[in-house]
Write a structure and sequence with these properties.
seven-stranded mixed beta sheet; four-stranded antiparallel beta sheet; single chain; 11 strands; mainly beta; about 120 residues; globular
Amino acid sequence: QVQLVESGGGLVQPGGSLRLSCVSSGSISSLIPMGWYRQAPGKERELVASITGIGITKYVDSLRDRFTISRDNAKNTVYLQMNSMKPDDTGVYYCWTNWRGSHYWGQGTQVTVSS
């Protein structure tokens, strides 16, 4: 069983920054791939960024200049640093992993970018 718990969401003004965290637990390797998805109101869930167990990253092209994914394997934690945020970044952000062929999701954390 894999559990993913996100934190760090909230309300931020345009141009501001937030850092999301996701802690994984369960009988899993600390080197599992992890990532972040988001779902804006009325839209489908989309990939934001992912990171392999050894730190190889992948981003949606439109976000790579503002968002940074990283991980601390000793803490079983993945982070998403979001800078220069825009109202279009508003949505629920979900932590993701794939373990032994199964996808797992966190409960999501709300991010709202508004003045």
